[in-house]
Amino acid sequence: MRVFGVVGWKNAGKTGLMERLVTEITGRGFTVSTVKHAHHNFDVDHEGKDSFRHRTAGASQVLLASRNRIALMHELRGAPEPPLVELLAQLAPVDLVLVEGYKRDAHPKVEAHRAVTGNPLIAPEDPTIRALASDTPLALDRPVFDLNDTVAIADFILAEVGL
């Protein structure tokens, strides 16, 4: 499976870039799935719903299905967070998986950067970052794209993964 990531510090524009890339790349006829890493506790379920009640009763996995979608929730219950490679293995085959986060993993990435955040660049210390998408010009040893130039960033990613 072809995998390419989008990384950056908080408020760098990662999620917006991911959304635009999915729209652009699927618009070209490719199938895309996404993986998003969350650094905090999150819940896609709601208190009082049957699936929530199943989970809180102790179920390890709860599969919720309808004619429109399925959702599989897996409670870790103290087990360590699975590595990205294990999560990718659970996805159905697609042309490209875009990963938001997982900045320390070895897959190729583009770094989103906004100058206003004042955060340092990750790229100078990370050879897995193949390009930057920034709202300000940068002088680096790899391509730098305008953060809003989704077409050029998509072209770069697709070329990098051989699509």
Summarize the structure.
25% of the residues lie in helices and 24% in strands. With 163 residues, it is α/β, with parallel strands linked by helices.
Descriptive terms for the model:
alpha/beta, globular, Rossmann fold, two-stranded antiparallel ribbon, 4 helices, 163 residues
Task: Describe the 3D structure.
A hairpin with a 4-residue loop joins strand 3 (61-65) and strand 4 (70-74). The strands form two sheets. The protein has a six-stranded parallel sheet, with helices on one face. The chain has a two-stranded antiparallel ribbon with strand order 3-4. It is 25% helix and 24% strand. The chain is α/β, with parallel strands linked by helices and 163 residues long. It contains four helices and eight strands, in the order E-H-E-H-E-E-H-E-E-E-E-H. It has a single domain (3-42, 82-161), classed as P-loop containing nucleotide triphosphate hydrolases (Rossmann fold). Helix 1 (14-27) crosses helix 4 (150-161).
State the low-pLDDT regions, or none: none
Q: What's the pLDDT, averaged over the residues? A: 94
The largest sheet, given as strand count, sense and whether it forms a barrel, is: 6 strands, parallel
CATH architecture: 3-Layer(aba) Sandwich
End-to-end gap? 12 Å
Describe the secondary structure blueprint for this structure.
Blueprint: E1 3-7, H1 14-27, E2 32-36, H2 50-57, E3 61-65, E4 70-74, H3 84-89, E5 96-100, E6 109-113, E7 129-134, E8 144-146, H4 150-161
Helix pairs in contact: 1-4
